[in-house]
Amino acid sequence: MREELRKLLAAEPFRPFRVVMSSGNSYEVRSPYMIVIEEDLATYFAQRTDLYSIIRLVQISSVDIIE
What we know:
It is built from one helix and six strands. It is mainly beta. It has a single domain, classed as SH3 type barrels, CATH 2.30.30. The strands form two sheets. Strands 2-1-6 form a three-stranded antiparallel β-sheet, with no helix packed on it. Strands 3-4-5 form a three-stranded antiparallel β-sheet, with helices on one face. The protein is globular and about 30 Å long.
């Protein structure tokens, strides 16, 4: 999953996508600067706020392109 996310973030042009967790929570990534991918975790930064979420990569159930 880590490599798939890195490819989506590096794509030119960038296409927004949604990360869906096994819990049912989802995170919309509308800019490549909204998420930082690490070894086993990702940090998601909500737009226009100081809020962020730590995401465990093994708990991601799907990644969907937002049209």
